[in-house]
Amino acid sequence: SASIQRQRVCVLGSTGSIGTNTLDVIARHPERYDVFALSAMSRVDELFAQVMRWQPRYALMPDAAAARQLRDKLRDEGSRTEVLDGAQALADIAAHPEVDSVMAAIVGAAGLAPCLAAARAGKRLMLANKEALVVGGALFMQAVQQGGAMLLPIDSEHSAIFQCLPEDRSAWAQRIDHILLTSSGGPFRTRDPATMREVTPEMACAHPNFVMGRKISVDSATMMNKALEVIEARWLFDLKPEQVRVLIHPQQIVHSMVVCRDNSVLAQLGTPDMRVPIAYGLSFPERIESGAEALDFHALGGLSFEPPDHARYPGLALSWAAMAAPEGSTAVLNAANEVAVAAFLERQIRFDQIHQLNEQTLAAVHPEAGDTHSLEGLLALDQRARAHAQQLARGLAP
Ligand code: NAD
Ligand code: MG
């Protein structure tokens, strides 16, 4: 109808799992959304196909050689899309005056700069890229507030919490006693912990319920994904670390819960399909068709819940350790984990050594005063932590 305000959307990380699911939802609502920009790190052919389908104003590739390939292919087709390269282009386009909404679906700290740019420019910022908030912390939240941005969580747990809370944020603190982030427990929930050292990248990336990027798949297996989500929730909902708790729920039907002051518990349920939180991010405060199947309560077996076993998932406790340590320590933990996961995927370290590397880097790299006051300071801290973790990884390599 004429009352619908069209949104021009910039999708950062459009070739990934969240990126392609975002375009799937957008395709269902051509009357609502225009794709203004698409971006990817590699996979030129996939980005090329997306550009041909969506004809965005811009296509962004941080890597100049990849951008050149894409530009050549598009020129042959007579495409009018302009290809930009360099990391700065991501931040520039995320803050472009004609952009209404930014889907932040890049993986890792690399997404922080464009997220900050979108926040400062007051965009609707749909955040899948949890690492950006784990690294950015208070600076990120300040940018959202000062820029007047609308920060919408895309992580399914955080979207669930958000959906259980009133639209008026000033009522949140009064209402919440604590939140329960649910976790599937990953692919090794019942595996003998003594055999974790034999886990291969293929085993870790075979997630029981749906296909995700390789980094988050490994993080789900170690529970570092939940550790990052605890920190993410702390910032999104302005909670104390002890107000964020974790519960294993293998069926992934309850996406997370809010326990209120009066012990009333609010939960958000649905089939595990990322298009639901994505659609909510795109349409909030309205609701639109997402493509997800309705939950069939008759076919549903039981729902079960259990406390996390910290011996099986030692990484989980690092979340609270990093939040209790000097500000910036969560950025150190994130950097260590990015290096550890990459080293594991490259078969340089074993699965169980991911935790060893994270723990030792967190203990060894200390943020300095001022590191967390600017993007440059945070990125320098991130680099210091990466260098330390890389050195440890080389020492562990067989
Ligand atoms: P993915 O690996 O499938 O996709 C990542 C995308 O980012 C790709 O388009 C890639 O080209 C791009 N990219 C990677 N590194 C980049 C860099 N340095 N600079 C610019 N672009 C880069 O990952 P994903 O599973 O879609 O996850 C994306 C983010 O969403 C992650 O932070 C993840 O934790 C979060 N998330 C994912 C899911 C899921 O179901 N996949 C659920 C919740 C949250
Ligand atoms: Mg999640």
UniProtKB/TrEMBL annotation:
Main EC class the enzyme belongs to: oxidoreductase
Binding site for 1-deoxy-D-xylulose 5-phosphate: 130, 156-157, 184, 207, 220, 225-226, 229
Residues that hold NADPH according to the record: 15-18, 129, 131, 213
UniProt domain 1-deoxy-D-xylulose 5-phosphate reductoisomerase C-terminal: residue ranges: 151-237
Keywords of the record: Isomerase, Isoprene biosynthesis, Magnesium, Manganese, Metal-binding, NADP, Oxidoreductase
A Pfam family the protein falls into: DXPR_C
Biological process (GO), any one: isopentenyl diphosphate biosynthetic process, methylerythritol 4-phosphate pathway involved in terpenoid biosynthetic process
The keyword Transcription is annotated on this UniProt entry: no
Cofactor(s) essential for the protein: Mg(2+); Mn(2+)
Function: Catalyzes the NADPH-dependent rearrangement and reduction of 1-deoxy-D-xylulose-5-phosphate (DXP) to 2-C-methyl-D-erythritol 4-phosphate (MEP).
Name the UniProt record assigns to this protein: 1-deoxy-D-xylulose 5-phosphate reductoisomerase
Originating species: Roseateles toxinivorans
